[in-house]
Amino acid sequence: MSEIGIGPTGKLMRRDAVKALLENRDGMLAIGGLGAPAWDITAAGDSPLNLPLWGGMGGAAVMGLGLALAQPGRKVCVITGDGEMLMGVGSLATVAVQRPRNLSIVVLDNEHYGETGMQETHTKHGVDLVMMAKGAGIADSRLVRTAEELLKLRADIHAGNGPIFAQVKIDEGTQPLVLPPREASILQNRMREAILGPEAHLQ
Amino acid sequence: MQREQLESAPTAAEAWPDQIYDLLKQHGVRQVGLVPDAGHARLIKRCLADNDMKVVACTTEEEGVALAFGAWLGGEKSVLLMQSSGVGNIINMLSVAIAHRTPCPILVTMRGDFGEFNPFQVPMGNATQACLEAMGTLVKRADRPEDVAETVNATLRLAYNTYRPTATLLGQRLLGAKTFGK
Question: Taking residues A176-185, what's their average pLDDT?
């Protein structure tokens, strides 16, 4: 397992955290929320199993739900940001009611809108996404601050005991851009082909 | 005033909600995203009673567009059921279906459309078709019961065969306007 570094703020380094979650992923599908999480999953290694989002802010969790319901035999991990999650926070209730065992939602929480000038999000001011997810009914909702907790999260995600919600406190430092393909029909159809084979294009 | 008088819903004698359900089965729809509307009540009941359909009640309509994208990523066809006021909630999320080229058929029961009583329904009802079309959605309308099945079928076929958001607007004439005795 690769090392999970600690940033100047004493919090986990986002790229290391995402790499650890996706290493040896065994076919796990990943959706990366708009902004830095999409670059993070790409930095961990671009793959047809990745769906980095260039838009649709607030939709990542329910995209993961639709995918998890369609593919119950595969793990689905939504990796998104605190701003993106806050915009679609009602989706925690929608996910909780469906109880998909194969779905995890991991919020990389840097307490800022990183792509628009580092304005503070509500999590900077005490809004507790774990409590909100618990209140929605996702029983396994947890705060992750340390490398040890992150590795436990990784193990539980891969065990398929979802739904799991995790708020991972990460260092707010900006990382170099690692951009995925921008043509979204390719992003969609390469994942469909990876899951369904060539038949995907004849559905 | 009775609660039933407040609802815009087809009478039990109308066949078209069951015809829509039959079309969803014919097309192999496996996921049904929805925010409830009285006009869709019977269709929703039919879908809930079907073990081959996963019915996902959403807190807002834009979740339904996101759901359609996730479902298609995993190889399942979906449909989104909503009321016209919900169209205002999905405008930006439609970019997800457009950019990825995702089949996203939407069946919209109209309010603010024909003999509306509630002033708050009128602005969005009046703008429903324009908003959808401004976002690249192919829109068809059905205002008579005998047109519903054919129109919904066209909307489903356009979405699944040409990979885009499409919509049928089910006119308020079909549903009966809420009058509150006015």
Answer: 97
ipTM of the complex: 0.97
Q: How far is B101 from chain A (nearest CA, A)?
A: 6
* Preferred mutation among B52, B53, B54, B73 to probe A, highest tally of A CBs within 10 A: B73
CB nearest A70 (choices: B62, B75, B92): B75
What is the 3 state secondary structure string of chain A?
CCCCCECCCCCECHHHHHHHHHCCCCCCEEEECCCHHHHHHHHCCCCCCEEECCCCCCCHHHHHHHHHHHCCCCCEEEEEEHHHHHHCCCHHHHHHHHCCCCEEEEEEECCEECCCCCEECHHHHCCCHHHHHHHHCCCEEEEECCHHHHHHHHHHHHHCCCCEEEEEEECCCCCCCCCCCCCHHHHHHHHHHHHHCHHHHHC
Q: What is the mean pLDDT of residues B109-113?
A: 94
Domains contained in chain B, CATH given: 17-175 (3.40.50.970)
Domain A14-202: CATH superfamily, name plus number: Thiamin diphosphate (ThDP)-binding fold, Pyr/PP domains (3.40.50.970)
| Chain A contact for B56 (CB, 8 A cutoff) | yes
Residue of A nearest to B72 (CA): A67
Q: Of B63, B75, B76, which is closest to A62 when you measure between CB atoms?
A: B63
Q: Please say if the pLDDT value at position A31 is more than 90.
A: yes
- The C-alpha angle with vertex B38 and arms to A59 and B106, in degrees rounded to 5, equals 40
Q: Which residues of B touch A70 (CB under 8 A)?
A: 30-31, 70-71, 73-76
Residue B11 has pLDDT above 90, yes or no: no
